[in-house]
Amino acid sequence: MKTDNVINTNGEDRRRLIEFRGVTKIYGAGHSSMEALRGVDLRVDEGEFVAIMGPSGSGKSTCMNILGCLDTPTAGTYMFTDVEVGQLNRNQRALLRRHYQGFVFQGYNLLSRTSALENVELPLIYRGTPAGERRTRALEALETVGLKGWESHTPGELSGGEQQRVAIARAIVTGPAVLLADEPTGNLDTARSREIMELLTSLNYNRGITIIMVTHERDMAAYGKRIIRFRDGLIASDEQNGRDR
Amino acid sequence: MLWNAILLSLREIRRNILRSFLTTLGIVIGVGAVITMVTIGGGATAQVREQIASMGSNLLMVSPGKRLGPGQTSGTVPFKVNDAEAIAGNISSVAAVAPVSSQSVKAIFGNQNWSTMVTGSDNQYFRVTNRSLGVGRPFSDSELRSGAAVCVIGETVRRKLFGGQKALGERIRLQKISCEVIGLLEGKGQSTMGTDQDDIVVIPLLTLQRRITGNQDVALIQVSVHQGASTDRVQQDIERLLRERRHLSPSDDNNFNVMDMKEIAKMLTGTTQLLTALLTAVAAVSLLVGGIGIMNIMLVSVTERTREIGIRLAIGALEREVLMQFLVEAVVLSSFGGLIGIVLALISSVWLVGVLRVPFIFNVGIVVVAFLFSAAVGVIFGYFPALKAARLDPIEALRHE
């Protein structure tokens, strides 16, 4: 899989990372079928920080599952770099996730009774990284999210904000092309949420990690450089965030 | 990939140490039971063989009655002393012939009494049964001919009646007769059948016939064959001679039975081996149940860990990696259980061997087999839950509470 495929559109010299062309997702069949996405066109370039908003049932979660290669479109094409994800089988999609994507969930989804370090090491184990390097990189990632010295704590011993930081460390430890965050602040109070958003912003700014985040909070979406609103399975609005930060 | 799976599995086992231990318990017990049974059974079989060898493999037992099966007879026309004399006089290669009759009696000395078996025979008896006198003398010819009230006693009888006192030359009471103790047999311990071979009083056959049983019958003729001579041939010769003496027509079946010690040995080791096999089979069932226990816990574990599996799949674990992890977990658990079972079996075998007084025969083969079997149990019973885990839909799994 090549990532150095440069596509020049709109005169901009940015590399296309993700492109949806008429992506449709239908759950079920016959009368009980439900159209979650109805021909979505979307392009995300490298280095973007996209916030996806929308009421529940608007298709944003389905969009996220497809972006994360956990699900495939019923119709249309999903290009990740120059790979058509719809053509990949389950294992190939798992490998794509492993090597190019990082996940952050609303519920943190850490392994319980497992130390922060071992949680962060998990994706590296699947990559087959040698033990020494695995440890070094996991410690670095924990330091990046501001949890230096917390590596031996288990999720039960950490606050929600800290758990989410561990989850972010786990997502970035592999150096992914894109970080997919599904309501990352949904379980946190405003102060913790802001800390998490600052962290994501700095990862986007300093490391150039592309971030796509689903949220229903306007305040959090405001951290994104670009805000997309979903309604009834379609993109209702897509605008650059003109904030001055 | 296998190394990764082992690493992940070990972390998972450590994470749930109590559950892991309980999961392996079935295998521990199964493997432990199988190895213990085989070890004890092997020891018992070896002991039977050893004891039969000590009795002499060149021994023939001639008993009256039709042969029904191994060791079973019925319908008796008893032997007389002259049958034994005829065997001794007419058949070559015979080393010794002892006519034997016995009866259980109460032996009394002073205020001590002891129920034992009194055997009437002659000096050949000691030779045939491979026994020697520790102290004292055998019967004299005149004592045998006249049916004198003299006896040779075994160690158990001596201990029960005399304790620390001197026995030789004392008189003990056997029913109505008062016998002088002229000799003490050397101890021989338990027999193959589990009876105490030292719980014995030997008196001249004539004394027994006249004063205890009150008939002329001989219950058993024990014949020992010269070393190196064919017991089969001697057996055939005895059969021919006895058929003649008992006036059997060619169409009649033998109404007596000549049994080779080898045959008895085969019968007895066969019995112990059968018993061992049965007990091992029962133990093997518990091993199987242990395997089902592992499958059960693994299935519960898959359901309980659905979310975790979802996380792994979302992070980029392949189906076969999740499969491997769960499979390796099951195999590690079951083989670890196997190892504990082996240790447990060795401890319990050593203990039981001491209690049952059988030799400790360490069977490396069964230990290896039991270990491999426990690992195989892990593979077989771990596969289905592992497959279930690997096939989970990551989206559904992540949503699972």
Describe the structure.
The complex is a heterodimer of chains A (245) and B (401). In chain A, 33% of the residues lie in helices and 26% in strands. With 245 residues, chain A is of the alpha/beta class. Chain A has one domain: 3-Layer(aba) Sandwich (Rossmann fold). In chain A, helix 3 (116-127) crosses helix 4, helix 3 packs parallel to helix 5 (160-172) and helix 5 packs parallel to helix 6 (190-207). The longest helix of chain A is centred in the C-terminal third of the chain and has 18 residues, at 190-207. Chain A is globular, with a radius of gyration of 18 Å. Residues 1-11 of chain A have low confidence and may be disordered. By secondary structure, chain B is an alpha+beta fold. Chain B folds into 2 domains: 2-51 and 266-399, no CATH class; 78-254, no CATH class. In chain B, strand 4 (94-109) and strand 5 (112-121) form a beta hairpin. In chain B, helix 2 (17-55) packs antiparallel against helix 9 and helix 9 runs parallel beside helix 12. The two termini of chain B are 29 Å apart. Chains A and B meet through helix 2 and helix 3 of A and helix 1, helix 10, helix 11 and helix 13 of B.
